[in-house]
What we know:
globular, disordered N terminus, DNA-binding, Helicase, Ruva Protein, domain 3, Arc Repressor Mutant, subunit A, nucleotide-binding, Rossmann fold, single chain, disordered C terminus, 15 helices, 45% helix, two-stranded antiparallel ribbon
Amino acid sequence: MDWDENTTAPPTEGEERLVGAGADGEDQAVEAALRPKDLGEFIGQAKVREQLDLVLRAARARGSAADHVLLSGAPGLGKTTLSMIIAAEMDAPIRITSGPAIQHAGDLAAILSSLQEGEVLFLDEIHRMSRPAEEMLYMAMEDYRVDVIVGKGPGATAIPLELPAFTLVGATTRAGLLPPPLRDRFGFTAHMEYYEPAELEAVIHRSARLLDVSTDAEGAVEIAGRSRGTPRIANRLLRRVRDYAQVKADGVITREIASRALAVYEVDERGLDRLDRGVLHALLKLFGGGPVGLSTLAVAVGEERETVEEVAEPFLVREGLLARTPRGRVATPAAWAHLGLVPPVSPQQAGQQTARHTPGGTGQGPVSGA
């Protein structure tokens, strides 16, 4: 799509990114309708599905609660969906909460004490749970028991509280922040990988059927190629292309319609949006491709340092458009090619070219006499 070389402005503060992997209210509502109900319907993550199927079948055969499960991976890959599938496969209710919501051990004790036998407790962003609650969780996961402290000071008393057998499903986008004692208490750990284009095409076709949207094979390919390997983004792009097709065309999503629609929403053929291209444009045009410090780069695009580092950089690095080095951020040759720019000639390359074009030049520079 066209790119104005004089424009570096990223999305304004508070503007939702169409290719952001986080879920807003609309995404949550649509995902609830599109979520598969069992492992057979779940698309992608073949190895995780196979391993998890064995864990759940064995638990059902024993008539016991399934082992605790830890799911790690980037946002939008299906961790919440898998947690609901685990509950459905075990024919058990599910309780959903998140790490940031549990700031005190008492918060966790209240949740654990109200669980039913075999219930699934889904704890999203488990790495953000407070340390006191985390330490209480150790005993709950291992011994199905928590000690509730009554009173303060020397007169405080620990009252043991027995818990029913339950299954904890923890989800995290940053598995490295989990302390080893917590990580080791999960009986099954799975890492969710980014989706291949063919898998995303299958996701798009399935979602299109459920949303009653007409799309051909090439239209699905076009959307899948811009979805950054993430089903949540694929479904969001599908809805926006559907809107365009209904207003500007006959309602059928073809490759041409998908391409035109995503050009309107400023999502290019590799899935980059204005923020991503703003970072690349600043790095290439203002700093000659780098290296440049992260803080300087963030100022150049008018964003916070954390936004550039945590929102834009991961995808740019994964796409091979940007590299992190000890000296700063550096653009790769693919970044220059993607924006249609020619990389500058380095002094060393310029010297080599001059030597090659000088009569009698050896390309090795002058040689000192003996």
